[in-house]
Amino acid sequence: MRCRLNMHFSPLMVTTFNDEIHLTSQNEDHHPYIKPTKRPEDLKKQKLVLRSQSTMFALAVFLLLLTETTAHKPHDTSGHGRGCIAREREALLSIKAGMVDDDSLSLFSSWHGQDCCRWMGVRCSNRTGHVVKLDLHEGFLVGEISSSLKDLEHLQHLD
């Protein structure tokens, strides 16, 4: 579709391409703000550039959000990531049974439930779930340490 418009006594050419309307000035000296339409190839390139810029922007926003959510994720301070090994939990409970804690705020007060890695004084490997540290120095303990201590095969630190 082509038609002529006279606007401010200057001829304009109206054309359509892909259902888009384009105005071109036949005399640019009279209308410096109206530029000739771009060729269809230029429009395709421009759309491709805009699309790739939009994709890059969306990717950058996604990575930023991903970084923010992982940066603010609370770190596991309990020293475990897999849970307690049942055999090692039984060994710890056997050690507890052989000891008496004279403190009213007993070290053993947290020693209940299935996950011994959450118990006070117990640290587990994040990777394997094995007990690697047993820290009993906080309590006022009296008694004998059970032979079940040998069942904590991955124990690296005992205090």
Automatic annotation (TrEMBL):
<keyword id="KW-0325">Glycoprotein</keyword>
<keyword id="KW-0677">Repeat</keyword>
<dbReference type="InterPro" id="IPR013210">
    <property type="entry name" value="LRR_N_plant-typ"/>
</dbReference>
<keyword id="KW-0433">Leucine-rich repeat</keyword>
<dbReference type="InterPro" id="IPR032675">
    <property type="entry name" value="LRR_dom_sf"/>
</dbReference>
<protein>
    <recommendedName>
        <fullName>Leucine-rich repeat-containing N-terminal plant-type domain-containing protein</fullName>
    </recommendedName>
</protein>
<keyword id="KW-0732">Signal</keyword>
<keyword id="KW-0472">Membrane</keyword>
<keyword id="KW-0812">Transmembrane</keyword>
<feature type="domain" description="Leucine-rich repeat-containing N-terminal plant-type">
    <location>
        <begin position="87"/>
        <end position="125"/>
    </location>
</feature>
<dbReference type="InterPro" id="IPR046956">
    <property type="entry name" value="RLP23-like"/>
</dbReference>
<keyword id="KW-1133">Transmembrane helix</keyword>
<dbReference type="GO" id="GO:0016020">
    <property type="term" value="C:membrane"/>
</dbReference>
<dbReference type="Pfam" id="PF08263">
    <property type="entry name" value="LRRNT_2"/>
</dbReference>
